[in-house]
Amino acid sequence: MLRRHFLAASGGTLLTAACQPAAAPKAAATATTCGPVPSGRADGVRTGGSRYIRIDGKYNVWVKQIGTGPIPVLTLHGGPGAPHFYFECMEDFLPQAGIRFWYYDQLGCGFSDQPDDKSLWTIERFREEVEQVRAALGLDRFILFGQSWGGMLAIEYALKYPQYLSGLVISNMSAGIDGYVKHVGELRAAMPADVRAVLDKYEAKGQYEAPEYQAAMMQVYARHICRLDPWPEPVIRAFAHLAAPVYNTIQGPNEFVVTGTMKGWDRYRDLPNIKTPTLLIVGRYDEMNPADVERMGTLIPDSKVVICEKGSHLSMWDDQETYFNALIPWVQQVGKQTA
Fold first, then answer.
1. How far apart are CA 68 and CA 65, in angstroms?
2. What is the DSSP letter of 122?
3. 46-335 maps to CATH 3.40.50.1820
């Protein structure tokens, strides 16, 4: 989960950015199948892999294919409300391993349409959006990769549409919100007393945008979101473009209190129904409790658990060696039935 306000580390400096991503030009979306070579339009005009997909009959969501390898992976970003930008490190690992993947900005995020309608920000609607994107890309068998909030969507998708999945990656996400809230509460309690005092002060007033509060939150982030100093540019950019309406409606006012549409979400009892080969990845210093992810591994029949010992919530950045040394061989092995 990523907080709705942008707090970024750059050489230890707190940065606040209110800019919004420039929307790409609108284009008519097509439902043509996307093959191993990127081609965004039915008329043959090459777009570098970028295209819009029409969903719900009236909105456009942005996708971009990276690489031309035989193993297809659709990515689901976190947030809720983060754009795909923080996945850009994958470009240095996956295409070289014969893996082609799609960036995909969910509705309300990044380069996709951003309608002003809170009724859209539900788990069920986003799950159905993923299915519409899959169908438009022509992915009859593929690996679904979800990180954080995207991992929640991946679980939901795998339970309803298993027939399309050759593999499932649940990265930095547990199967229950109550466990997440309990764990982040414990992480909060372990922060220095002066940091906790600032958090208490402004949370009591509901002043989550106060500079002092944001500075205190940055100390939490530096421990449990990304442990690199400075943060990588794609991570800073993703936080700068976080969609507050989506985050606030689905999650709530901050990382520690969930009051939005995901409140009470729990899929532990349904995990044995996931028969798809599944890779579970978590960071030792993650916002998600590694013990919860290990429990998931005992419940999903064909699963493997990887703990990034140096990593936090963005362990694809702060423990890249462990993360990609686990991810790539697993995807290659599972992808054999797709390629």
1. 8
2. -
3. yes
Domain boundaries, the chain: 46-335
Whether residue 102 is predicted with pLDDT greater than 80 in this model: the reply is yes
* Dihedral of alpha carbons 119, 120, 122, 125, sign: positive
Q: Which of these is catalytic: 313, 315, 318, 319?
A: 313
Across the range 147-175, mean pLDDT stands at: 98
105, 286, 292, 318: the active-site residue: 286
Cα–Cα distance measured from residue 153 to residue 56, given in angstroms and rounded to the nearest whole number: 17
Query: What are 19-30's pLDDT values in tens digits?
Result: 333 343 333 333
Amino acid identity, residue 284? Answer: R
**Per annotation, catalytic residue among 39, 112, 148, 312:** 148
* Residue % of the chain over a pLDDT of 70: 88
Residue recorded with tokens 């979306």: 29
Q: What is the mean pLDDT of residues 131-137?
A: 96
Q: Decide if 112 is catalytic.
A: no
The torsion defined by the Cα of 10, 282, 249 and 24, in degrees rounded to 10, comes to 60
User: Helix, strand or coil for residue 66?
Assistant: strand
Q: Is 183 a catalytic residue?
A: no
Global pTM value: 0.89
Q: If residue 273 lies in a helix (H) or strand (E), which one and from where to where?
A: none
Is residue 313 annotated as a catalytic residue, yes or no? yes
Question: Rounded distance, CA 61 to CA 64, Å?
Answer: 10
Q: Are 121 and 49 in contact (CB under 8 A)?
A: no
Residue 34 amino acid letter: C
Distances from the Cα of 36 to the Cα of 3, 66, 148, 247, 271, angstroms = 35, 10, 27, 33, 32
